[in-house]
Structures are given as C-alpha cells and as structure tokens.
Specification:
Oligomer: single chain
Number of helices: 77
Largest sheet: 2 strands, antiparallel
Low-confidence stretches: 322-333, 595-604, 651-655, 1128-1132
Number of strands: 6
Shape: elongated
Mean pLDDT: 83
Strand content: under 5%
Length: about 1500
C-alpha cells in the first residue's frame, strides 16, 4: 500500500516533489527486499525526469536516489538466497543504470556546483557494479581520470575515495585490462591522499584514509608487484609525510594482502633499513606498527628480523614523553607515544603471538645488560618473565638458558648483577624494580641451583614491600638495605667462594656501565663490598680492592661515597685486609705522585688530588663505622685517625699544610664523625681515654668557623657538630672555656643562616633541619655533662642574644632550641636534695615576653619553655617527675590558642601566663624575674615589649606587697629602661607599674623617685604624673612630698668668694626635688580631687616655699646641667628654685579649681614679681588680692595654714605670710568670712617681730583696713593709731621703711578714726613726721608732707588752736617744696597747703592757697609766693623773723630750685612787711647768707639772691 501511494505521486512526465524521490530512495535502503522488485518501474519512470530537472537541488536528490537504488540492488543480489524473487539479475537494471550513468557522468558531473558533483560521484560508485561489463571497460579510461580529478576540486575527499574504491572493485571483478594502464596515476593519486596528515579531530579525513587504504588493498590483490615497486622506493625518501604514509600503506597490505605479500617478505624487510634510522617520532610510530604487523605474519622469523626486534627494544628504552598541560589546567598524558606503542607491541608480541616465542627467547636476554637498553628493562623483564614461565610449563626441569656457545647472551653473574643493581631504583622506568626481581626469581635455577627456595620467599617479601609503598613514601636507604640483606642472604645460601668471587669480578666489571646513574653505581659499590665481605679468598679481596682504588672516578661525589661504603662493608669481615690495602695504596707510587707538590698523575689538577684524599678519608670513616666495635677501639687512633689526618694535611718542604678544599674538609668531618660515633657506641667507650679529643674538637671548630654565616650549602657544619656531640661525651672532659667556645661558634654558624625563600626550600631546607638537629644533639651532649642550674644558665646565656634577635627566624630557632634543652633537662632531672633553682626568675623573665612574639611558632615555643621551667621548679621543690600541676597545665591550653590570635587575645593570654607564673614563682625569684622583664621593655619586637609590660604589671599587682626592700632597685631599673626607649606603650606601662607599686609601698616609691637626678627627665616626670591616677594615692603622695619639701632646710648659705660681703644662698636638693615632684604630680589632670583635698596645705606650703627660694641659687653641679640643657634647647622647664616653686603654686591653683586666680595674677604680672627679690612682696599682695576676689571660700583654711608661719625661723616665710595676710585686709571678704578679728590679732602679734619687713607689712595690713573694712576702723581706732605711732618710732634710722609705712597708714586711717582718738596723737604725729619733710628719700618727703596735710584736714573745726603752731612751723618747708624736683612731693605740698589754709584763720591766705594750688593746675610760683607773703605779713607780721630764719635753712638745700625759692621767699616777706618789723630780722646774717648765694653755681639762685638783696634796701 505504501508503494502504491508513493507511485501515485510519482507519475511519468510530471516532475515530482523532491521529498517523494527522497522517500523512495530511503525505502530502498530500509526495505531492500520489498523495494528492489519495483525498481525497474521506478527507474523507467524516473529516467525521463532526469532531463526535466533543471535545478541543482533536484538533481542532487535524483543522484542520491540512484545511489540508494544501486546500493539496495547490490545488497539484494548479494543475498539472493534470502530474496523473495531469486530471478532478479544484474542485467535487469543494466540498461536503466547505463542511461542514468550517461546523464550523470557526461552532463551533471561537469556542473560548477560542488554539492552536485559530490552527489554524482557518490552515485557512480555503486552504479559501476551494475553497468554492463563492456560499457564499464569502455568508460574506465574516462571514468577513473574523471573521479581522480575531483581530488583537486574538493577539500573533503572521503566520498571520492569511497566511490573510487567501488569503481576499482567493479573493474577488478570484471577483469578489466584498462586498469593496468591507469595504475600509475591511480597509485600516485592515492599515495598523495594517504600522505595527507591525519587530524584526529576530523572524522572526514580519517574516513578518507580508510577508503584510500581500501583502494590500496584492491590494487595489492590485483597487482602486488606494481604496488611494491611503487611503494618501497618511497621509504627511502626523507620526507616525513611520504615515509609515514608509505609505512601506513605497507602495514595495511601486510595485514590485508598477506597471501600476495608472502613471497615478498625478504624484499620488504630489506626495504626497512632506512626507516629504522629515521629519528622522527611519527615515522618511528609507523615503523613500530609495521613491525607489529610483520610479527603477526612471520616476517621476524626471516633473516633481518633481529634488527626489527632490536628496534622495538630501542624504542622501549626511550625516555617517557613529558605530559602536556590542557588549557583547562588538567594534565594530559601523551597520546600514543613511540615508547608506549613499542612497549605495548613488545608485550603483545611476547604474549599473544605463539610463533614468536622461539624468536624472542633467549634473544631478548641479550638486551638486559647493555646500558643503552636500560629504559626498556621493565617491558623486557615482563616479556622475559612471560616467555620463561611458558618454557617452564613446557619443560619444568630443563634450564631456561641454553648457552651452547652463544656468546651474545649475558652470563648468570651479569644477569644477577644487572637485575639487582637496577632494582635499587625500583620505581624508575615504570616499575623496573619489581619487574627485575620477578625475572630474577624466574631465573633462579640459571643463576645458581641453590637459590630457588630461598628466593621464592625473600623476593616475594621484597615485592610486597614495593607494593606497600610509592615512589614518594619509599625510603631509599631502607630499600637498599633490604636489597643488601637479600644479597648477603643469597651469598650465604650459595656459600661457594668461587661463585662469589666470580660474581665480585662481574660486579666490578659492570661498575663503569653506571657512570651516568650515580645512585645505582653507589649501590653497586655496596654490593661489591657485600660480596667481597662474603668471599673467603683474601687475595681476591685485596686485589679487587686495589683495582677499585685505582680505577675509581674520584671526580664523582656519588662514586667516592660508594667506594667508601664498599670498603666499610668489606671491613665488617676483612678489617685488617681493608686497612692494609688502604695503607698500601697510600704508600704506592700512584698515590705518592698524586699528593706531591705537582699535579696528580699527569692530567689531574690539585682539585683532583683533594678528591682522592677525600675518598681515602671517607674510606677510613666508613671502615670505622662498619667494622666490629671491639676491633675499632684498638685501631681508631693508631691507624684510622692517623692515616686520615695524614691524607688531610700534606708536608711541603717540611711544613704541614692543610687543604682549604671544602670537599676534602667535608670528607674529614664526616669520617671523624663516623669514627667518634663508632667509639661512643662501643661497650668499652666509658673506659676509653681519647688522647686526640682536644685536637679533633679544635679541628671541627675551625671548620665550623670557616663556614659562611649567611648561607648553608654543605653539610660540613652538621657533620662537624655531630662529631663534637660524640667527642663531648668521651673522656677526658673538655675545659669550660672550650665548651663555651663550642656553643658560641656553633650557634653563630647556624642561627644566623637566612631561611630559603618561600617555596624554594628543597634540599637546602632539609639540610638546615638536619643541621639544627645536629646542633640540638650537641647542646644536649654538653648540657648532659653539667646537669645543674648553672649548666642550664650557661646554655641560656649563649642563646639569649638569639632569643632577643630582631630577626624573627633567629628567634624561632633560638626558642626551639631552648624548649628542646629545657625539656631534656626536665626529663633527666635528678634531685637528691632540696636545692634552690636560683636562676628561675632570670630564665622565666627571658622567655615569657616571647609569648607575644610576632611569629606564632616563637610564641608557642616560649610557652613551652615557661612550662618546662615551672615543672623544673616543682622538681627542685621535691615533686615527682610524673606530678601534674593544675596551674602549670593551663599553659598548654594557652599555648594552643597562640597560633593566630588577634592582639587583644594575645595580651590577655600573656596576662594569664603572668598570673600562672606569679602563683608558682618562689618569693626570692620575683625580683630577678621583674628585673629581667624590665630589660625586655626595650625589645625590638613591640609585641614582646608590650607583653613584658603586661606581665610586669600583673606580677606587681599579684606579688608586689613583698617587694618593699626592692623598691629602690626596681625604680632605678625602670628609669634606666625608660631612658633607653621612646616607645609610648613602654612609658604607659612604666607609669602603671609605678602606680601599682606605689599603691603598695607609697613612701618607698616617693623616696626612690625623689632620688632621681635633677632636673627630672621626661620619663621621671611621667612616673610622677602616674602617681596621680587614683585620688587616694595621689593625696598620699602629695602629702609626703609636701612634708619632704617643708621638713628640710630650704637653702644653705655659702660664700662664693672669701671677700664677699654677703653669703650666697644655695638650694638644698631634697626640697627642690620635692617641689619639682609636686609640680609634676599636680600637672596631671587626675590629681584634681587630691589637690582640692589638700588645697590649703599645698597653697600655704608652696607660697612659703616661694618665699624661701627668692634669690636662692642652684648648686653648682645643677647650674652646669641647667646651662647645658638651655644651650641644647632640651630643657622642658627651668630648674630655678624659685621659678619651680612658683610653677608648682600655679599648678595648685589650676588643679584646685582657681583658674581665675591664676589668670588675674597673670594679667597683673604677679607671677613674675613673686620670683624677684624686689617685687616679691608686691607679687604676694597681688596673689592675695586675687585670692580674696576669686577664691574667698578657700581663705579660712589657707589663712589658718599661713598663720603658723609667724613662728617660722625663716624671715622670708614670715615676711611672705605677713604680706599675704596684710593684703587680705584690703578686701571686705575677710569681714564677710568673719576672719577680721583673728587676722588683726595675728598681725598685731607680729609688731614685735625682729624683722623690719614683717613689722612694716603689719602696719600695711592694719592700714589696709581703711580700704577693706572702713566701717571697722572706728572700732579699732586706738589699736590702729597706737600701732602706727609705734611704727613712726620704729628704729633709729632716718629712712626707716617701717616709719614710712606708718605714715602711709596714718594717712589712710586719719579720716576714719574717732576725733578724740586722733587728738591724743595729733601733736606727737606732727612732731614725728616733721624731720621727713626734708628727707633725701622722695617717698619719705611725699608721704610725710601728705600726712601733714591729712593731719590739718583732720583738725578742721575742732583742734585748730592746738595745731596752729605745727602749721606755722611747717609753712616754710611746704612753700619751698612746691619747687621740689619730684612732682609727687610738689603735689603733696599743694595738698598740705590747701589743708593748712583753714587752720591759719586767714580767709584771704586760705583763698590764695585754694586758688593757686589746685591739682592739675599750673602754678606761677612767683605770683603765688608774692600773694602768700603779702597776706602773711599783713595778718601775721610778728612771724617775719621766724619765717626768715626758717628760710635761711634752705639756702643750703641740695635741690637747686629749692635754693632759688628760699631767697625768693625771704625777698617777698621783706617786700610786704612794714619797716617797723625790721627788728625781727638779723640783717647782717641775712646779708651774709645772700652774699654766699651770689656765688652759687646755679644762675637762677644767684639771680634770686641778688633780687632779695635789692629788697633789703628797705631796711637800710
């Protein structure tokens, strides 16, 4: 029904839809038997349509349909026995296919459309089988070239090649003769296609290759001679593609046309000569594939087959190809490498091709021993094992190897030696160790008949050991030792001296074969030594040893080591013969030539000489290490060491010369180490007296010191230290200095070596670790000799610089060593009696700060050290070794948390560690621990420095109460530490430490700090400020300092020069230091509460301290310091005693809340005045005034504190306190505070003070009542006036300052006292002040005259008659002093005359005084004097004589203006007096006096005298 439906749509004459044609084509493929019977009708309908198809797409569909129809027809014909219609024949379709062929080939194949051409050629292939044979024969000359031409037109040619193969098969099937003509062009075209490089990722190219090879198969079957004649010459070309393609075709036809190639085998084998020599890997791969094909078809049995086998083995020996990196980062193994293909081929041929067994065995055996086939050993051994096992199955008892004169086969000794040697590197070459051992086991009967049973067991164990390990986990040393044990056991089983000697000879013979593999040669040397050790023939042993010495390659390090191992192993059984042979060689001519002044032999340099010597030295070392211990002791010094040093040093012209070659030095060190180790491990080592011990130690130290300290390239250090480790334990014991030198030199040589860069460790890192282990062993060995605290201390002293190193890696190493030594000491601690661990504090102090090191490893090691030290202390206290202390065990928990902590956790852990230490540290060790921790404050690692501060403060807090006697020492160390560092955290910690210590021992701390050098440096100042942190403590400190400042004398008097009139006052140190300390403590803001509490005492004490230091000098030594500090600009503040006290006083005010007082005094310049002798009282007054105004509430207690100073022995203190109290009376605040009465009483009590200044200040204070509390003056008037009058009478001097103060005070008080009280003292006062009118001192004149004016003012309206006489007596001085050179005096005169006017009871005169003498108004003295004299003479003419006589006194005045005014006054008096009053004047005396004035040097005086003389004419 399907066909009917399809045929309904496939009508003649109508071009069908393309899918209809496609469906028919697909049906023909999927249903061959159902479709082929209909094809004749389909083809008859379709053929006319071919001409109708004009579009290429439709033509392509028709071509595909024809291809499918042809393929299904061929399949139908090939399976006629199954077909429903067996009558169908090929010629049934011949005419239709022939017609279609003409259209496709002659018309459509010429199309320009590539897709159509490919469709056509794909159809022509199967169609060619259906063409009539005649037509095919006719068309072949055109068809074949037409198809071959498409190779050039299309890149993808697989369809072309497939079609070509079908056409060739069709041509061959009909026996075409035309094919022979076309053969050359066909071969050329096909060969070109096979030589196209195959891209594995392109399936089309691979498919094309397969189709082309199919074509070659067709041609090989029909024309083998022509094909080989074409192919084989192509093998001789050097072109890679040509050779590889040809080899591919050759392999293919060997497999696919075996019958045709059978007679061509020799010819083909001979043609492989050049390809076998080609180094190209692709060619090699192709050759191996050809050889594999040959093996399967019997080619290798032919002459020349051996070369093919050798080629395969050679390729198996190639080194493995490197793995390639994929873009994704994954490792990709090399695909189909030559070696892998060859290995696979060899194994497959050996195991799967039965005919090859006789070819391969025993031929493959001859490839075992040649060195060039070493890389192929693994596949060789596996193949040989398989072949041998097959032979054993066939003939169990027969020998596997039949030599039969076959000299190319290796001997059993050669096979055994080879396989044993290569087994020493078991994982090389893909696991050749196991393969070799397996082969060795299979060949046991051929090696020696006695070995079978033993090897079956031992080799199985060896193979099992290899399976348990990998290349990374296998210990080479252990594996080699197992192999040597295997060899030694095998030799014991054989027990045949002849066989053993023969094996030894073979081993020696094979030694040169391993020159390129040092490790295997080294092992072979060991095998030689083992075999010689088993030999009983001494002659053979010595002969072979001599041969080894003469033929060794001394330039190779591995060989030198191997030779030495050989001698050492041999010495186990033949010690005497080995030593004798070494000595014989040293004495031989060969060796003597080598160690002469000239070169070794004729072609070796001095360096080679050293290598020979080094090898001999190594031989002696290995002999000592391997030989029986009981025999070594007797030969160690006499033979072994003597000969070693003889080889090491050479005598040139009688002088001993030691080589500088590092290789020879290393050999000597290594050998000495082995000798010492051998001696120490002997049972008689304890009684052995090593006479050369000191010499060897010195030699080892020289080697160590000669090594560069900044690099580690050779194991000389390690070996030398190991040697010293063994030497130290031998007798006699080394001197202490020698031991110290050893420790110092070894530490310096190892610790300073910089680590390798990150990621570049490798062998150098392992060498350093080994060297460190050697150093640990050496230090332990030395410590074992002195297991006491002193011995431990010696070790730590040497390690201490490295523990504190600024380089982290050095600290890590030093702490690791320390932890190791402490653990060792703890494990071996034996305490027979309770003894003190006297240096525990020092050690704990050294290690504990490192618990905060920047390097985590250092932190953990430091905790381990502290842990061990605490248990050591417990051990010394009598606790058993297995005792576990809960407190100490907490350190382990803390240690685990120190790997990567943040700083907060880190320092908290340090605090916890310090608490643990504080609980377990004996009291006598506390100070040592603290002092050591103080040293750590300057640690370059800031973390450790901070940790030290944390621990110090914790220890002081926990255990500081027992440190009273140690406070001075602690404070001294703390100050010195601070001077060495500028780190802020250290300063802060030190401050806290001082605070904690002071809270427990305040007096001791203060006393210690006061002993600090003056001036205090910044660090000491900071420590003082630290005492202000807590109010209670700071109050206690301030009280102590105040007491120290006040208790001692403030100064001492001394004369700087013998003739000096006044002694110098020099400050004493303790009060000065206490003053500075007070200032520092109070400069801290935290001291505020304490200062407030002690405000009165501090204020009074420091004010009195200021008074005692005014004008006081520093001691000479401090003066020099002060000058140096000021010149270098380092002084933070002056050390001047007075300035220091003033600063401290200001600090009291500031910190006590009296900032306003400070500012007010500052504005008034009071602070500067306080510090000077001249202004001190004024400064005190300004301070008192400021206190009264700004700090009144504090005055009661301050005054109370100052009142006690009235009994002070120091005049300055009495003066200052009086000045302060006196100034307080200027303010009403004392009245408000009800302090007035007590204050007046106190001042009154001081009136009898021996110091005039005190008395003066008392008067000033009493007078200040007038301004401070004027309303209280009347109540105390008599008392005040009495005090003032007493002041006027104070002293006998004309210039008494007390009197001056009294006059000033009276001037203030006169207007406020009761008149009755004043009247009682009025005349006395006037009388007492009169002499001061003409005083030389301005102050006295001014004050006395002004007081006189006040006295006059006080008399107005009540006592004029009583005071008139005093007014008249003072009139002339007042008038004349109007011309006083001092304005203040003249002003006072104006005031006094104005006040005197009313008391003269002359209104006109009083008016003149008021008119002319107003303040601020200019005075015409002549006019005024004329008017005044006129009224005087008018109303008081009887006073002429008294006035003139008084004026005569001033003719001799020292002031020029006054001298001029005196005659002027006299002249005006004479001018206005009546003549009848002449009798009152002594004219003679007056004239004489005037005449004297005419001679006065001042012109104005002379003028006035002349004028007055002229007026005297009136009396003539």
């Amino acid at each position: 029904m399907v066909m009917e439906e399809m045929l309904g749509k496939f009508q003649p004459g109508v071009l069908p839809h393309c899918f209809v044609v496609q469906t028919l084509a697909n049906l023909s493929v999927f249903n061959v038997f159902g479709m082929v019977p209909f094809l004749t009708s389909v083809l008859s309908t379709m053929l006319p349509m071919l001409g109708m198809a004009k579009h290429d797409s439709m033509r392509v569909v028709f071509c595909c349909a024809l291809q499918r129809f042809s393929e299904s027809t061929l399949e139908y014909l090939a399976n006629l026995d199954q077909a429903p219609d067996p009558t169908v024949r090929k010629d049934t379709f011949a005419s239709d296919i022939s017609s279609a062929y003409d259209t496709l080939f002659h018309h459509w194949l010429q199309s320009r459309e590539a897709k159509l051409r490919l469709a056509v050629v794909e159809a022509l292939g199967p169609m060619s089988h259906l063409l009539p044979s005649e037509k095919l024969e006719e068309q072949l000359p055109k068809l074949l070239p037409g198809v071959l031409a498409l190779y050039k037109k299309h890149a993808e040619t697989s369809h072309v090649s497939k079609s070509l193969g079908q056409i060739l098969e069709a041509a061959v099937s009909v026996g075409s003769r035309t094919l022979e003509v076309q053969l050359d062009s066909l071969l050329a075209a096909l060969h070109a296609q096979i030589c196209v490089p195959v891209e594995t990722s392109s399936p089309l190219v691979t498919s094309n290759q397969k189709e082309v090879l199919r074509c070659f198969t067709v041609l090989a079957c029909c024309s083998p001679e022509r094909l080989l004649a074409f192919l084989l010459p192509k093998l001789d070309t050097s072109n890679e593609r040509t050779r590889v393609g040809t080899l591919q075709v050759l392999r293919h036809i060997i497999n696919s046309a075996a019958a045709q190639m059978e007679v061509k085998k020799p010819f083909i084998l001979s043609s492989m000569r050049l390809p076998l020599l080609d180094p190209n890997s692709k060619v090699k791969r192709a050759v191996v594939q050809v050889i594999s094909a040959m093996a399967h078809h019997g080619y290798l049995e032919q002459p020349g087959g051996e070369a093919m086998l050798e080629y395969i083995v050679q390729q198996c020996a190639l080194p493995p190809e490197a793995q390639h990196q994929k873009p994704s980062g994954e490792v990709e193994p090399p695909a189909d490498s030559v070696r892998d293909i060859s290995v696979s081929t060899l194994y497959l041929v050996s195991t799967t091709v039965d005919r090859m067994s006789d070819v391969l065995w025993p031929h493959l055996l001859q490839f075992l021993t040649p060195v060039r086939f070493t890389g192929a050993l693994t596949p060789l051994c596996r193949s040989l094992v398989h072949l041998a096992q097959k032979r054993q199955e066939a003939a169990a008892e027969a020998p596997l190897i039949q030599y039969d004169g076959n000299v190319t086969l290796p001997s059993p000794y050669a096979i055994a030696t080879r396989l044993l040697t290569v087994s020493s590197s078991p994982y090389l070459g893909g696991g050749r160790g196991a393969a070799s051992l397996c082969l060795l086991n299979v060949l046991h009967r051929d090696i020696h008949p006695s070995l079978g049973q033993r090897w079956a067991t031992t080799i199985a164990l060896l193979l099992e050991y290899l399976e348990e390990h990998t290349e990374k986990t296998l210990s080479q040393k252990e594996w080699e030792e197992k192999l040597l044990v295997f060899l030694r056991d095998s030799l014991a089983v054989v027990s045949d001296n002849t066989w053993i000697c023969q094996l030894s000879l073979e081993m020696c013979k094979q030694l040169p074969c391993y020159n390129g593999t040092p490790q295997e040669k080294n092992f072979l040397y060991k095998c030689v030594g083992t075999t010689l050790g088993a030999a009983s023939s001494k002659d053979v042993v010595r002969k072979l040893l001599q041969e080894l010495l003469e033929t060794a390659r001394y330039q190779e390090e591995a060989e030198r080591e191997g030779l030495a191992c050989c001698f050492g192993i041999c010495a186990i059984s033949h010690l005497d013969d080995t030593l004798a042979q070494l000595e014989d060689f040293v004495r031989s001519d060969v060796f003597r030539k080598s160690i002469g002044i000239f070169n070794i032999f004729k072609d070796r340099s001095d360096n080679d000489v050293d290598k020979v010597k080094g090898t001999l030295i190594l031989c002696y070392g290995h002999v000592a290490a391997q030989a029986p211990r009981e025999l070594v002791l007797a030969r160690a010094e006499s033979d072994i060491l003597r000969n070693m040093f003889q080889c090491f040093s050479t005598k040139v012209l009688g002088i001993k010369v030691e080589t500088k070659d590092p290789g020879l030095q290393l050999c000597l060190v290594q050998s000495v180490c082995m000798v010492c180790q051998a001696i120490c491990s002997s049972a008689q080592a304890g009684s052995f007296h090593f006479t050369r011990k000191a010499e060897l130690v010195a030699q080892m130290m020289d080697f160590i010191k000669a090594e560069p300290p900044d690099s580690l390239r050779t194991p000389i250090r390690k070996k030398a230290m190991l040697a010293c480790t063994h030497l130290v334990s031998l007798e006699p014991e080394l001197e202490e200095q020698v031991q110290s030198d050893i420790i110092h030199s070894c530490l310096h040589s190892v610790m300073a070596v910089p680590p390798e860069p990150e990621g570049e460790g490798g062998p150098q890192e392992f060498l350093y670790l080994d060297t460190m282990h050697a150093l640990e062993d050496l230090l332990r060995s030395i410590l074992r000799r002195n297991m006491t605290p002193q011995g431990l201390q010696l070790m730590v002293e040497h390690l201490s610089p490295w523990i504190k190193s600024p380089r982290g890696y050095e600290r890590v190493r030093a702490l690791g060593l320390s932890a190791c030594l402490l653990q060792f000491f703890l494990e071996h601690l034996h305490v027979s009696a309770l003894v003190p661990f006297h240096n525990l504090g020092l050690l704990v102090g050294l290690f504990s700060p490192r618990c905060a090191d920047l390097w985590p490893a250092t932190r953990q090691e430091a905790v381990s050290c502290v842990y061990s030290l605490l248990y050591l202390q417990l051990g010394y206290e009598g606790f058993s070794r297995d005792y576990r202390d809960d407190v100490a065990e907490r350190l382990l928990t803390l240690r685990d948390g120190l790997v990567h902590p943040d700083p907060a956790i880190l320092f908290h852990a340090c605090h916890s560690i310090a608490q643990i230490i504080a609980k377990r540290l004996p009291p006598d060790q506390l100070i040592n621990l603290l002092l050591t921790l103080f040293e750590s404050l300057g640690d370059p690692d800031k973390n450790c420095s901070r940790a030290a501060t944390v621990m110090i403060n914790c220890l002081l807090k926990e255990r500081g109460s027992m440190l009273l006697e140690k406070v001075p020492e602690i404070m001294s160390v703390l100050r010195s530490r601070l001077q060495e560092t500028r780190e802020e955290h250290v300063l802060q910690s030190a401050q806290h430490s001082v605070y904690v210590l002071a809270s427990q021992h305040c007096v001791a701390v203060v006393t210690s700090l006061l002993g600090s050098p003056l001036p205090f440096d910044s660090h000491t100042c900071s420590l003082w400020r630290a005492l202000a942190v807590e109010p209670g403590l700071s109050a206690q400190v301030l009280g102590l300092l105040l007491e120290r400042m006040s208790r001692d004398v403030p100064f001492k008097e001394s004369r700087a020069f013998l003739l000096s009139s006044t002694p110098d006052r020099v400050a004493t140190l303790l009060p000065l230091a206490a003053t500075c300390a007070l200032h520092e403590v109070m400069s801290a803001p935290a001291s505020g509460p304490a200062v407030t509490e002690l405000y009165p005492q501090l204020f009074a004490g420091l004010l009195l301290r200021v008074s005692c230091t005014v004008g006081v000098q520093l001691p000479r030594n401090l003066q020099a310091k002060e000058r140096r500090a000021s010149s270098s600009a380092l002084a933070s503040r002056t050390l001047d005693p007075c300035s220091t006290a003033v600063d401290a006083l200001r600090a009291v005010l500031l910190r006590g809340g009296s900032e306003d007082v400070v500012q007010r005094v500052e504005l008034e310049g009071g602070w500067e005045l306080l510090s000077t002798s001249a202004g001190h009282e004024d400064g005190v007054a300004r301070l008192a005034s400021a206190m009264a105004k700004c700090a009144g509430p504090r005055l009661p207690l301050v005054m109370k504190a100052l009142l006690g100073a009235h009994s002070s022995v120091y005049e300055a203190q009495r003066v200052t306190s009086t000045a302060f109290l006196a100034e307080l009376l200027t303010s009403n605040v004392v009245n408000d505070l009800m302090l007035l009465e007590s204050l007046l009483d106190n001042l009154a009590a001081r009136q009898k003070d021996p110091c005039a200044s005190v008395r003066r200040l008392v008067l000033r204070g009493l007078a200040n009542l007038a301004s401070g509390s004027p309303d209280k003056v009347r109540a105390h008037g008599p008392q005040l006036l009495t005090a003032m009058i007493s002041g006027l009478d104070d002293g006998d001097g004309p210039h008494s300052l007390v009197a001056l103060e009294a006059m000033a005070g009276l001037a203030k008080l006169l207007g406020l006292v009761e008149p009755e009280d004043l009247r009682a003292v009025l005349l006395h006062t006037a009388f007492r002040i009169r002499p001061f009118f003409d005083s030389e001192k301005v102050e006295f004149r001014s004050v006395s005259i002004r007081l006189f004016g006040h006295l006059n003012k006080a008399c107005h309206g009540g006592c004029e008659d009583v005071f008139l006489e005093q007014v008249v007596g003072g009139l002339v001085p007042l008038l004349l002093h109007l011309r006083d050179p001092q304005a203040s005096v003249a002003a006072a005169c104006r005031f006094a005359l104005r006040m005197c006017g009313p008391n003269l009871e002359c209104e006109e005169l009083a008016d003149v005084f008021q008119k002319h003498l107003q303040d601020g108004r200019g005075l015409h003295f002549g006019e005024f004097l004329n008017a005044a004299c006129k009224h005087l003479m008018c109303y008081f003419p009887d006073l002429l004589g008294r006035l003139v006589s008084t004026s005569l006194f001033y003719f001799k005045s020292s002031w020029e203006d006054v001298r001029a005014a005196a005659p002027m006054l006299t002249g005006f008096l004479v001018l206005h007096v009546e003549p009848q009053q002449q009798s009152q004047v002594d004219l003679e005396q007056l004239t004489a006096a005037l005449q004297l004035l005419l001679k006065d040097p001042a012109p104005k005086v002379r003028v006035k005298a002349a004028e007055t003389l002229g007026r005297l004419v009136k009396f003539a």
